[in-house]
Design a protein that fits this description.
This protein is α+β, with helices and mostly antiparallel strands. Helix content is 42%, strand content 22%. The radius of gyration is 30 Å and the shape is elongated.
Length: 529
């Protein structure tokens, strides 16, 4: 039970004025869908409405009314004095002049806006771009919802046509500038030297069924094979700090994007040729030849089961132990490194068993047909018996156990085997970048149809990712237990109140007192930026 704490002539419950002298705050749902905030008193066992603070239509308005209700409850809870002081009258006048729009959510601007300026995006002389990026970070919603956010939290009225006209010109005007700023920040963060870069691609799908020159149906990494899509290529430095990006047609083979992308990026940033790290999806003889011709060093994930039979026999006969590595020369200055770990072997075996169980379940249900026999996933274990019977090839399934725990890397670098493996493992940063963009920043699905608006949407999301990444860096540096997602949520309830002094008529704005966690985040940001 909460124990009242008596301070002077006011009673508080643990310092929170929500229950005072038999009075308490109540939220009452109305038939119209609105919510009333009321002060309720109890006397002789009966409850009655002492005062109605107001009626809220939205969560934001409800939070403001609840705050004002707590203030009024505190005032009513104080023992009345014989005379109302002049100070009390002035305070009442100030509060009487307050409106709903006197209290605004300022958190996204004082947190994300501070980082936006620190990175250098403040040099972009487009206020609307700033609003759209910060809205993407705090409330990753549709452009229509962004208009509501900008008006409600920033007091800036916008028309949807204004945003669309801005998007129409944004990409051609701002993409290069945003990338240059991101690259300069990444270079500074990494100590002025970018000696290794990581490249990967992902698909972004659309909630529309029609295709065009950019949006094409194709192999989707998200499993949305029927939806038109585009490919997004992203280049990052160590730690996942952004360098640049590009957009490709949705039906392109991802292996054909690497060389054109590298040429464009290295020219744009005057980047001396770094070591390029990419996963096995970009492994092809054409890519390898092109990288060598362009004098690039590379580390690319290998597809061990696609290697020549002679190399596969060498690998399987070696029977590596946990943590052991073997090296096979493939060509001049090119080697295949194969590593074995027991943990990977356990994971691989588990995944194979799950795949087999799904096949057995589908086979039993009669859902597998001749068209199911292919090399996609675990369908490779299916075979035909006679002309109509589909069976599982258990011999092939058991033979695959010899590949459990093995991972291959093809490289022409002079790095040690350990350094090659460690650098390749840093690819998880780019996978995390895509994951953050798709979940926290909700870069997909995309609802735009026009090419330049799609490109503008990606540009906004790319800029937002740079800010998100910098927030992650500084939280880690300060050893804060806050996640970046939690930090973003905390900004939703950081308020600023604007009021006019009754005598001088001067208008002032003040931050409302934050809770301890919000104050910690605020201090971290303003200490580092």
């Amino acid at each position: 039970a909460l124990k009242p704490l008596i301070l002077l002539d006011c009673v508080f419950v643990l310092g929170v004025p929500e229950v005072i002298l038999g009075m308490f705050l109540r939220k009452k749902k109305n038939k119209s869908g609105s919510t009333s905030v009321q002060i309720i008193s109890k006397a002789n066992g009966k409850f009655r409405v002492k005062k109605t603070i107001g009626v809220a239509q939205t969560e934001q308005e409800l939070q403001k009314l609840w705050y004002l209700g707590k203030q009024e409850l505190e005032r009513l809870g104080c023992q009345p004095k014989l005379f109302v002081s002049e100070n009390d009258t002035i305070v009442e006048q100030v509060f009487a002049s307050l409106k709903n729009n006197s209290i605004r959510t300022i958190g996204p601007e004082i947190i994300f806006g501070k980082i936006y300026d620190h990175i250098g995006f403040g040099a972009i002389e487009e206020e609307l771009f700033r609003h759209l990026v910060i809205a993407r970070l705090a409330f990753p919603l549709s452009k229509l919802k962004t208009i509501e956010y900008v008006y409600r939290y920033l007091g800036v009225p916008l028309d949807i046509d204004v945003i669309y006209r801005f998007l129409d010109k944004l990409n051609s005007k701002l993409k290069d500038q945003a990338e240059q700023i991101a690259f300069a920040h990444t270079k500074k963060t990494l100590g002025g030297n970018i000696s290794i870069v990581f490249y990967d691609m992902t698909t972004l799908y659309f909630e529309a069924s029609d295709e065009d020159d950019l949006r094409k149906t194709g192999f989707s990494k998200d499993g949305k094979h029927q939806n038109p899509q585009i490919y997004l290529g992203l280049l990052v430095g160590l730690g996942g700090y952004a360098i640049g990006y590009d957009i490709f047609e949705g039906n392109i083979y991802e292996g054909h994007t690497l060389i054109p992308f590298l040429k464009k990026i290295t020219t744009k940033f005057k980047l001396e040729k770094p070591i390029v790290v990419a996963d096995a999806g970009l492994l092809s003889n054409d890519n390898i030849k092109a990288l060598i011709q362009q004098n690039y060093e590379y580390i690319i994930g290998a597809r061990l089961r696609n290697e020549p039979e002679k190399i596969k026999q060498q690998i399987r006969q070696r029977q590596l132990l946990d943590g052991e590595v073997m090296k096979i020369k493939k060509a001049v200055n090119t080697k295949l490194i194969v590593a074995y770990t027991a943990n990977r072997a356990i994971k691989d075996e588990h995944n194979r068993e799950r795949g087999l169980q799904r096949l057995e379940k589908q086979l039993k249900a009669g859902r597998l047909t001749k068209s199911s026999i292919n090399n996609k996933g675990y369908n490779k274990y299916l075979k035909m018996q006679g002309e109509v019977t589909i069976e599982i090839d258990y011999e092939k399934f058991n033979n695959d156990k010899s590949w459990d725990g093995l991972k291959g890397y093809i490289t022409n670098t002079k790095l040690s085997d350990k350094e090659v493996i460690e650098n390749y493992r840093n690819l998880w940063h780019i996978e995390k970048a895509f994951r953050m963009s798709k979940t926290d920043l909700r870069i997909r699905p995309i609802y735009h149809r026009l090419k330049h608006r799609i490109e503008a949407h990606i540009c906004i999301s790319f800029t937002a990712y740079c800010i998100y990444k910098e927030l992650e860096r500084v939280l880690y540096k300060e050893k804060s237990p806050l996640s970046i997602k939690k930090a973003a949520e905390l900004t939703h309830n950081m308020y600023q109140i604007t009021f006019t002094l009754p005598e001088s008529k001067h208008t002032q704005s003040k931050l409302l007192k934050m809770d301890d966690v919000q104050a910690e985040l605020y201090q971290i940001i303003h200490k580092n930026f």
